Amino acid sequence: MADETTSSAPGSPEAPRTAEAGVAIPHALTAAPGYQVRRLYQAYLAVWVRAVDPTLTGPQFAVLTAVDATPGRDQRSMASAVALDTSTMADVARRLEGRGLIVRRTDTADGRRKLLFLTEEGERTLHAARERTRQLDERLLAPYDAGQRADVMHLLTSLADHWEGLAGDS
Known about the structure:
The protein has 170 residues and is mainly alpha-helical. Helix content is 59%, strand content 8%.
């Protein structure tokens, strides 16, 4: 039996949606939080590439921002600070280092730890990306007033915290 769609007002969460190909999107999908999060993420990535930087990814931007805030911090704790697993963090750090945006120095007290620092090029790249990211954030939240923006950010943060907890329980 096909999923039912509802006939509420257009644009409401219950309204049936149609994909670009003209195919109705099943309500079982549109009612699923994961489906909506994936839609948001895909759209965000597409806008990020055009508005911020086609070669700097969101995770790379997060790492540069965190390294700028706490230079000399070790790679493992930096991964936690930017919500990356350690293997992804190692890959991101390696790529940033390869582009000359950060340097990784071995901790003299513990040779297994890599300490992260921005290069001058990393500082320039981060500075330029920060302004474009701020502008993008404004565009993304433009339909909402200040109170609604605070509510959106509260809900997103709450969801992220809850879902990370669920992922950690797995």
